[in-house]
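User: Hello! I'm new to structural biology and keep hearing that structure can be predicted from sequence alone. Could you demonstrate with Glutamine amidotransferase domain-containing protein? Please show me the input and the output so I can see what each looks like.

Assistant: Of course. The first part below is the input, the amino acid sequence of Glutamine amidotransferase domain-containing protein. The second part is the output, the predicted structure written as tokens.
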Amino acid sequence: MNLGLAFDPLIPLPWLIAAAVLAGAVALLVIVSRTRGSLLRALAIALAVLALANPSLTREEREPLSTVVAVVVDQSASQEFGERTQMTQAARAELDTRLARLKEQGAEIRFIDAGGGAGEVDGTRLFTALSAGLADVPPERVAGAIFLTDGRVHDIPATIAALGFRAPVHAIISGHEGERDRRVALTSTPRFGIVGQNQTIGYRVEDEGAPSGARVSVTVRRDGEVVARPIVTSGQPAEVDVEITHAGANIIEIEAAGLEGELTAVNNRAAVSIDGVRDKLRVLLVSGEPHVGERTWRNLLKSDANVDLVHFTILRPPEKQDGTPINELSLIAFPTRELFQQKIKDFDLIIFDRYAQQGVLPMIYFDNIVRYVEEGGALLVSAGTDYVSDGSVYYTPLDSILPAGPTGQMTQTPYRPQLTQAGQRHPVTRALPGSESDPPAWSRFFRLVDTDGARGTSVMDGPNGKPVVLLDRVGEGRVALLLSDHFWLWARGYEGGGPHIDLLRRLSHWLMKEPDLEEERLRMVAQGGDLMVERQTMGDSAPLVTITTPTGATRRVTLEPAAPGLFRVTFPADMLGLWRATDGTHTALVNVGPLNPREFAEVTSTTQALRPTLEATGGGVWRMADLAGLVPRVVAVRSGERFAGEDWMGLAMREVSVVRGLGLFPLFAGLSGLLILLAGVAAAWAREGR
């Protein structure tokens, strides 16, 4: 119980001050005049002023509060290197035993785990974890904090005032002095690049704990494929040029050879993601004659802002002589030599839409098209009655690359095209809208070119299993053959229409080698806190996949069927950094969090990073390896400013309590106040009357 005195003035404070000044002046005048009973008169005046201040006796019932000691345990990825995890666990157990003595003195011990998991922000943030762990504790109750860490902390406050309390903070460092490590540091990293052009990446190989100047072998990979093997000097800046080969993320890895005796090889590799941006795709569309389906192709290609379309329709073959005056013709000359000889390699895709030989293109130009495809180009032939005519493009050098030849006959009957078994797995036609029902929920076609000797992959067929859409690879290029000219019925909404946009767009992008439409592909995607590995294949099963974590650990996973031609598996992404998946043939990369986590940038343990800040709080820094029992002695300090020594650390024990009850007794209220005032007046009167 604590006794005290409190005031609750009966008049405003300025008035009370004025009354006190006036009373003091009168009392002083009385005392100076040396009249009889002057002191008692001054006392009576003082009692009157005191009555206006309304003093009260207080009685407090207080309950003592515990002193809080926080122990922050670093569980970040860098703690997994060497023997740090085992050292930290042993130090935590020993510290728990030594702090148990403080519990007997009313202390509360809080262990706070910090770091670890892919959900953590970049870097080790022990001070953030400390603030969160003490958020419900008033600053005056904090006796101090102890960090169990490797010393690589990335949220050190600029001033100790930012801690929010005044108490010592100590650090006990895991690891050993003199550790060696090699790492790759990126110095310049472009974010974007044009597909087909080179981008320059700047980097530097740095050795910690070892002298600079060593010659180091470096391996540069793009999406897992080795593209360069330069030799560089450690400590010196270097550059490498890498071609951007596809749209989307191109992940470039720069990996240095290991350093003898180094702590870990995980930071010997740095990665940068460069978004490939395609220059406009150039498509050449040649229509053999005006027809109702011609606009379907034109509208589809013109609707894509990334496509630069060059379209010609052959309206007037050279041999046609009908006497029409030249000034009444409104035709653009077909620049055959420029398109099919000089600039053919500038096009990403060539489309022949119901084109029949009319003597416009010499045979040598078809030879150029064959070479163009074999060297990586793309050709699409949309066939109709032209394909069975004597002028069919099949009766040109294109016969060596086209996947099927005409029989000279056509099937003229209503039918609904259906996906073949291969079409259900192929990314061009897999899950095509409407294909899930039987028969498919799209309109009928009424014509089909009969062929024989089909090769490649038939993804859609018609009556009696006759192919409607054939896909094939020729050399480095690709060829597609559409054997019906009625896809325009889907575009016009006949009988409900069909997925012409999905089919034709996918088909065009497959021909132009869009990575997402590859038949055999492995990809890995980060989804929230999980990683999904997906294998796209034309086969019946998917091989086992080996997963490599950012720290270099490996695991093997089995993919489960998810859809025809698709196999997947999902598992937690429990670590920041670059993950790799491979099935022996294909490789996929995905990054969780930053590409090059600060956690792996500098991994050697250190006592210097934390020392200035902790010593400013009165705390100390020790290495576990230098102490008996891994931790220093714990000392309860109740007074003084020194909290650390060579082998001991102090905690500022607090005397803090909370008021549970409060009693008030006003001195000048009621009869007691009246009696005090009367006593003062009576004493002064009695002395004066003598």
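User: So the tokens describe the shape?

Assistant: Right, they're a compact way of writing down the 3D structure. Reading them back into a model, for example: DSSP finds 13 helices and 37 strands in the chain.
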